[in-house]
Amino acid sequence: MSCGKPHETDCGDVLAEVYLYLDLECPDDRRELIRVHLEECGPCLREYGIEQEVRALVARCCGHEIAPAEFKTRLRGRLSQLMMEAETREYLPE
């Protein structure tokens, strides 16, 4: 995904790392780049909002259980795959 505007951090990179950002699992310098990007890029901010809502829903449904690392890895992989498929559909002619 790209909003078409130049940014210091690419839209695709930001969206690929949004879960790391939400989980506070990325380095502080990277976190700051992502935060700045989200502040200036409406499409990414909307996508981030959707991701944030999904996380909140999962948290409500699962309580305070900690998901195994393997599950997180599989889930992130699947979500990345779905994002790539959605992005591909955006550019396909109708």
Commentary on this structure:
The structure is a single chain. The chain has 94 residues and is mainly α. The protein has one domain (11-91). The protein has helices at residues 11-16, 18-22, 28-40, 42-62, 69-91. Helix 3 (28-40) crosses helix 4. The model has no long low-confidence stretch (mean pLDDT 77).
Task: Give Rg in angstroms.
Answer: 14 Å
The whole-number mean of residue pLDDT values reads 77
Largest sheet: none
Q: How many separate structural domains?
A: 1
Strand content: under 5%
Percent helix among the residues? over 70%
Assign the structural class, choosing from mainly alpha, mainly beta, alpha/beta, alpha+beta, or little secondary structure: mainly alpha
Based on DSSP secondary structure assignment, what is the total number of beta strands? Answer: 0
Shape: globular
Number of helices: 5
Distance between the termini: 18 Å
The run of helices and strands is HHHHH
Topology record:
Layout: H1 11-16, H2 18-22, H3 28-40, H4 42-62, H5 69-91
Summarize the structure.
The chain has 94 residues and is mostly helical.
List the defining traits of the structure above.
94 residues; single chain; mainly alpha
